[in-house]
Every structure is written in structure tokens, then in C-alpha cells.
Amino acid sequence: MTDNGAALWQKTEVMHLAWKFKDGIPLTVQISDRIRQDILRGEYRAGEAFPTVRQLAAEASVNPNTVQKALVILENEGLLVTLGTAGRTVTEDGEKITEARQRIYSSFANEVIKGARLLGLTEEELVEMLMPDVQKMLTSFRFSDTPYQPEAV
User: Fold this and answer.
1) Given phi > 0 = left and psi -120 to 50 = alpha, else beta, which region is 78?
2) Residues 6+ apart with CB under 8 A from 150
3) Model-level pTM?
4) I need a labelling partner for 115 at 20 to 30 A (CA). Which of 2, 32, 108, 128 fits?
5) CA distances from 78 to 1, 8, 36, 135, 147 (A)
6) Residue 17 CA to chain centroid, in angstroms?
């Protein structure tokens, strides 16, 4: 974190990917989800100055109030820290990052389990079906910069 609030405020780094929004999901949710994922992936480092509401709103072509609401969600989760008039930074609390990752992982795992139940799979069948993909993902994770891409069904 910088000692100079003015320098922190002037930082202009913004997200690297284009914003694409889906119909039927509130923009506030989509924006907070996107920023959360970027933080958890390390796109923004702990203690790093965070882009301003206006910067993000301009980049995403949305109302600044919508961005503000999304950032408040992330502040309430502890992923962003407000420095008053000096802007925001990404939390330096590693526990908050770990908790957020665990929440997302648990959500994905619950979806897999729900799907297995809908298919009438036993625990053994689910594990048997998952293991080849888990092995591929681990290999991709260890030896490649390319993210794992599941085979088309």
C-alpha cells in the first residue's frame, strides 16, 4: 500500500478483459462476480490500488452507481478496502481471499453433486466419472499456462 493517498488515487490500471453482460442477471451481480474472480485469480494484488468507480464504469459502459453497488458487495465480503477519499485497495487479509475461494469452490462442488443426484449416480459412479477429468486438470494446472478445457459432450 502506498503512503501517498494522492498517488493511490491517480492509479489508472483497469481490467484486462472486455466486459460482456448476460440478460436476466443484475449488472451489479455480474460486475461484483467478475471483479471477485479477477481478485481471486491475482489480476489485482493484495494492497494494490483499485481502479476508481468512474474508471470501471467507463470501461464497462455502465452507470457509476451500478459499479459503486458492486464494489460495496466486495467491501462487505472483505475483498476490497476503502481508504476514504484516497480510493480503494485489494485486501491484504489472506484469510478473506481463502474464504472467498472456498465459497466459490463449494458452490461449484454443490452443482456437481446436484447434477449427479439428478442423473441417479451413486457416490462411486460420481467419483469414477470425475477422476479422469481431475487427472487432466491437475496435469494442465501443473504443466501448462493454458487453463483446462473440458471435452465437449
Assistant:
1) left
2) 133
3) 0.70
4) 32
5) 16, 19, 11, 33, 27
6) 13
